[in-house]
Please model this.
Amino acid sequence: MKKYLVIFAIILMACGGSSEVITDIIQVEDSIQTTTTTSTTTSTLITTTTTLQEKPMTLDDYFGEAFAPAYSPNHLLFFEKDMDENYFRNTRNKLIEESVIDLTITETTEFKNTVILGDDVVCEEDEFIIKDANEEGVSPKEYCNKLVTVSDWNYIRYPIFKNEVPSIFKDTSFDEKPIGKCLDSLNEEIYNFVYSLSDFYYKDVKESKDLGYNDWHRNMFSGDFQVTWISPRGVKGDGSVKYGDATFISGRYPSPASFFLSEIGAEPEEYGVISIVFDFYKYYAGAANGQWFIETLNYDLINCKKFYLDDIFSSKNLSAELYDGDELIPQSYSEEVLNIWLNQETEAWVYALNYEYSKVQCLLDNDFCDELGSPTFNLSPSKELFSDFAFDSNGLIFFFDKYQISCGACNIPLPLIQYERLFRILDFNILGKKEG
Model:
């Protein structure tokens, strides 16, 4: 807000005495909410001062044009959410049956084959082995040759979807509509996805064992899941499933307009989605620390296939004139910004997504505010940063591995970015039914 200060000073000198009159006028270009005037008079000095109270932040200021604030004050943080440690209630949907992939390797062998000793150290001559043997009341040789059973750890829990809830839940509030025609394909996709990860780790451990590494059984790999979103569904008269997703962009106040994504050509007449998040931990024997990482699986219930980040974003509406009926929807970004983004090698929507992400992360943790620069920054953002995402009723959640965006001991916000921030670059049309 530009402010201009005009100071007029009038000094009068008169015979038989003197007086000074100073008048300060503060003028603001924008609208003025409150004006306070203070006047003080003495025999020698008269001062008139006009000051303005600071204009309070409003919701309109927060969202800015087309819901795209350049920066949002922390007292409006309730519009942003960190989904780290959030429990997603769809995980307990009664259409889900849980199962486990178990590729654990188990072996019974002599104890001396399961420990790592120093170079050229004979088991029964090791001082710690001798001490342990004495505590058990056996000779060091007997201790080293005793049979033990060891195993690594390789488990992943995963969901199996059904088209009916168990009978105990039918006709209750826990009853659910069927998943639909893609049920078998969905379950096959989930199983292949988690099995490939477990099998990769299994082969790593087996190779370590076959090469004679005695600590192979100290390796660990585990995984669990949560379901963030299952599209609402109904059943048609012919028994087929009708999916009820419809993304509403809410202005939350009189202007700008509220509208559905379908009204700006960014959403098909019907689409259905399931989003699953897998949380993994792996540890290799001898390492100082294990590693946490996240993988997401997003599944298209209309076309029976996985979909990815590129499938739900595009730049087609980024600079377009969009209307809600006869009302023009305000542009989200300046012409200067759009010209820069649209003339880069990286797709323009990636710049917009990265910019919106940066603003939300800054709100969730001020340690990330250094990354919030001008939208015209030169650094080319990476699509790979956003590859793990999941649907939510209010927006898209983005997930990151430990160490991916901050130090291991630092906070790692997993932001829910609302559809209101992203509507210019969202494009769900690929999730619709294909002609023919």
